[in-house]
Automatic annotation (TrEMBL):
Membrane topology label: Multi-pass membrane protein
Protein name: ABC-type nitrate/sulfonate/bicarbonate transport system, permease component
Protein's cellular compartments: Cell membrane
Keywords from the named record: Cell membrane, Membrane, Transmembrane, Transmembrane helix, Transport
Matching SUPFAM superfamilies: MetI-like
Record-stated family: Belongs to the binding-protein-dependent transport system permease family.
PROSITE patterns found in the cross-reference section: ABC_TM1
Main location as per UniProt: membrane
Limits of the ABC transmembrane type-1 domain: 47-231
Spans through the membrane: 53-73, 85-107, 113-131, 151-170, 176-198, 210-230
Length: 246
């Protein structure tokens, strides 16, 4: 990880030196300007709004996708009802629906949260549904034979089997959510990191532009790290080899 970061920064320095253009400043100039912009508060508001939008979208999509994915994964009848619609709707380019979504939900946070949540919902749904279907029925039968209720089976067998796949899907969805957030915030709005980056680009304030890009990257990295942390603490059985090797 450290080597990759060092290589990235070294490559940035080399490209900035070779280009010799104001639109590609050196990393130390971007870093100092980002810290200054955060301390002055000009960037904090936009970072907070973007964080709120991604957080609400991830939470909402995760709850709905987990509920419906588990239902489809554990019930053939429910699966036959839900999954065909998911297969039909998933390939539709939902970003193209942003103008329509804004007509229904307005230009505020709701339309942006809905678009982000809608796109990552399907990614999560299919992963959870497949993970729930892959649960070894011998474990379910063993717990049921001990008198466990359906809720106990869900809590002690199904959810522990699905959680690792869910956190993997959430880490992947973080990149998707960030990309969709950037696009949504460049459309009919004056808030968020996406707007901040494009506004800086239009003003040719390249240090501000890169500061917004750094914050957007840190936002995505923060959510990725959060899901990795939750994965390690809620699914410790998946990381036994890593602990033994360390």
């Amino acid at each position: 990880m450290k080597k990759a970061g060092f290589l990235l920064i070294a490559s940035w320095y080399a490209l900035a030196f070779l280009a010799g253009k104001p639109f590609l400043p050196y990393p130390h100039a971007v870093a100092s300007h980002t810290v200054l912009a955060l301390l002055q508060g000009s960037l904090v508001r936009h970072l907070g709004i973007s964080t709120y939008r991604i957080f609400i979208a991830l939470i909402t999509a995760t709850v709905l996708a987990t509920w419906l994915g588990l239902a489809a994964g554990r019930s053939r009848k429910t699966d036959k009802m839900l999954t065909p619609f998911a297969y039909i709707l998933y390939p539709i380019p939902k970003v193209a629906l942003l103008p329509v979504i804004m007509l229904f939900l307005g230009l505020g946070n709701l339309s942006k949260v809905f678009l982000i949540g809608l796109i990552i919902f399907f990614q999560l749904y299919f992963v959870i549904r497949d993970a729930a279907q892959a649960v070894d029925e011998r474990y379910v039968d063993s717990v049921r034979s001990l008198g466990a209720s359906r809720f106990a089976i869900l809590v002690h067998v199904i959810l522990p089997s699905v959680l690792p796949s869910l956190f993997t899907a959430l880490r992947v969805s973080t990149g998707t959510a960030t990309a969709v957030l950037f696009l949504a915030e460049t459309f009919a709005t004056t808030t968020g990191l996406g707007w901040y980056i494009m506004d800086s680009w239009a003003r040719m304030d390249y240090l501000d532009m890169y500061a917004g890009m750094v914050c957007l990257s840190l936002l995505a990295t923060g959510f990725f790290a959060l899901f990795s942390f939750l994965d390690r603490h809620l699914c410790p059985w998946m990381h036994l080899r890593d602990r033994e090797s360390s």
